[in-house]
Design brief:
Length: about 375
């Protein structure tokens, strides 16, 4: 009898995060509050124009600040004073940047053109650590931007501390979306556990005619993850599988900047040759940063950054992918032991973390094509891939 309230609370929390994500993506203001009662008004930096900023300033109890990662601040030309503690140990931890009154912050889109920043905003200086603005609120705000597939940079308008539902009621009165910081932090893991299979069909594939595609929908109603099942699998034996993160440019358009397309088709061919297996096609474009941000990272790569540095210049981790959805799909298909086609040791560790035993690693590498040498070199030298 005790499970129902918890289940209801989880569903309510997820819905709140999903509303907040939608609000950020459309340029709206979100009210964020942590367990200690600290709160803030949040707008995504890349959509914060003069009107939205003026609205936020009228509601906030203190001057708004730009919250981003230390790496992102460095990328747009900021010098980090020694007295700023926030983010010094981890370059992707949030720090705050003072904002002049009434100016938009769209320069956050162009990290490699810091010399032109004055066209839009005169960033003054970093004057105080994020701790003075409630670090849990700042970190949750950055995480919410990432969940929304936006750049990890937000304008934060501090609010006074409160208790109980006072801030929630205030947000409702102001017609603003409200979300708790702890629900933002728990969102992805919770959503992964709530994947539901919503469709399946026999889909003959080139080189694998006996194939079925199973679609799994996340609780936020977003993009589905897919399981491509070739042949008849025997879950009592280790199943040959491949975890493949979607890549629109490589898988569909045949981009030569990566090896994703050949890995996808090669995995299906290898599974078919063995007779059975599963390819999980995961909705995690651009190592989890989304297609738009991947294209932004490509632009940085054209300026000389490698794959990892480009992601970090934008304020993301080198790899933002999660493997809880993959583990959930496998478990619900009755698969607990696998032979994993991968060159990435992290995938082995992550599946083990979620209770999937990797009985064998099956190498899965392809020659460079004349355009992706640096990409493959970065995988091997900096990401530890076994190439």
């Amino acid at each position: 009898m005790a499970a129902a309230p918890n289940s209801s609370r989880t569903a309510t929390a997820q819905a709140a995060v999903e509303r907040a994500m939608a609000e950020l993506r459309r340029g709206g203001i979100v009210v964020l509050r942590d367990a200690q009662g600290h709160g803030g008004l949040v707008i995504a930096a890349e959509s914060c124009g003069p009107q939205a900023l003026q609205h936020l300033q009228g509601l906030a109890q203190d001057a708004p600040v730009l919250v981003t990662t230390r790496r992102r601040a460095e990328a747009i030309g900021m010098e980090i004073p020694p007295h700023i503690a926030g983010g010094m140990g981890d370059r992707n931890k949030p720090i705050t940047i003072d904002l002049p009154q009434g100016v938009p912050v769209d320069i956050i889109l162009r990290p490699h053109e810091s010399e032109t920043a004055g066209r839009h905003i005169a960033l003054s200086h970093l004057s105080r650590p994020v701790a003075s603005h409630a670090p849990q609120v700042a970190e949750a705000a950055i995480e919410l931007a990432k969940l929304s597939r936006l750049l990890p940079a937000v304008v934060l308008g501090p609010l006074t501390s409160d208790r109980g539902d006072k801030r929630r009621d205030w947000a409702r009165e102001q017609d603003l979306v409200y979300v708790d910081a702890e629900d933002v932090r728990a969102y992805e893991e919770t959503a992964a556990r709530n994947l539901q299979q919503v469709a399946q069909a026999h889909v003959p594939l080139e080189g694998a005619e006996n194939a079925r595609i199973l679609a799994w929908r996340p609780s936020d109603g977003g993009k589905e993850h897919l399981a491509i099942v070739v042949g008849e699998i025997d879950p009592t034996e280790p199943v040959l599988i491949r975890l493949h993160s979607e890549c629109f440019t490589g898988d569909l358009l045949g981009s030569l900047r990566c090896d994703c397309g050949v890995q996808l088709r090669g995995a299906i061919e290898q599974i078919a040759k063995q007779g059975s297996g599963v390819l999980l096609y995961l909705a995690q474009e651009g190592r989890g940063i989304g297609l738009v941000n991947k294209l932004r990272a490509y632009e940085l790569q054209d300026d000389g950054f490698d794959t990892i540095d480009a992601n970090e210049q934008l304020g993301f981790d080198a790899d933002e992918r999660l493997y809880a959805p993959a583990a959930t799909m496998l478990q619900r298909m009755g698969i607990k032991r696998v032979r994993l086609m991968t060159n990435n040791p992290e995938k082995i560790a992550q599946l083990a973390r979620y209770g999937i035993e990797v009985a064998e690693r099956v190498a899965h590498a392809f020659p460079s094509n004349g355009h992706n040498e640096n990409y493959l070199r970065t995988k091997a030298e900096r990401a530890g891939h076994l190439l």
